[in-house]
Amino acid sequence: MSQPLPLRIGVLGSGKGSNFVAIDDAIAAGQVPAQVVLVASDVSEAGILTHAAGRGLPNRFIAPGPFRTKLDEAAEAAYIGALREAQVDLVVLAGFMRILKGEFLRAFEGRVVNIHPSLLPSFPGLAAWKQALDYGVKVTGCTVHYVDQGIDTGAIIGQRAVPVLDGDTALTLHERIQQAERELYPAAIAAIARGEVKVKGRLTAGFAGGA
Ligand code: GAR
Asked: Does the beta carbon of 14 sit less than 6 angstroms from any atom of ligand 1?
């Protein structure tokens, strides 16, 4: 019987790219049946682009347009075009700090996933680790979820809990959450690639290792 083809993933990020590195390392180690076919960023000097270039993977800065938190129409079309040209099966948001909606989500309906640094539905939005610290919760974590039209509201695929320790700063807590992200995101993408994640309404079937 022939093996299913590896899932073609396009990764979008704005920052240092530690999630992307973890995903690509897991692919290289044979743990995720996927291949990275494009890395794109809205920040020309983002670490994620440097990491992609160092790994010999296609990488592009795509200018986001004049807005701070979203793409303008031309930029949205450029992102859609680049991802379509690369024939991606799944769009993986790894620290992409702009809101994607409308046309973009219609173009890749049900095929966009994100990692968020809290246990959703708690603390959606920016600097979620700082929100958790300021609120005083004792446990936080990270969530991989499908992206829908809301802010961090899509169906949850997997989560990892992380303790908040006495003396934590925003920095130490974020680092502990990011360690958990680097385990959870590759495992979640592997489960999607193997067809183990099924969405039914707001709910997803869990995967082994999703909690
Ligand atoms: C990650 O911690 C991710 O959860 C967060 O950005 C960071 C990117 O780090 N995403 C969000 O806050 C999205 N709302 P990385 O560039 O090292 O992967």
From this structure: no
Residues 6+ apart with CB under 8 A from 133: 164, 168, 169, 170, 173
Q: What is the pLDDT of residues 105-150, one digit of tens each?
A: 999 999 999 999 999 999 999 999 999 999 999 999 999 999 999 9
Check pocket membership of 18 for ligand 1, CB cut-off 6 A. yes
Phi, psi (rounded to 5 degrees) for 77:
-65, -35
Contact 57, 24 (CB under 8 A): yes
Q: Decide: pTM greater than 0.85.
A: yes
Task: Cite the DSSP H helix spans in the chain.
Answer: 18-28, 47-54, 73-85, 102-107, 128-135, 170-193
Candidate from 145, 181, 184 with most ligand 1 atoms within 8 A of CB, to mutate? 181
Nearest-angstrom CA–CA distance, 176 and 56? 29
Among 59, 92, 114, 116, say which to mutate for ligand 1: greatest number of ligand atoms within 8 Å of CB: 116
Does the beta carbon of 210 lie inside 6 Å of ligand 1? no
Task: Return the bridge partners of 40, or none.
Answer: 12, 60
Angstrom distance (rounded) from CA 122 to CA 137:
10
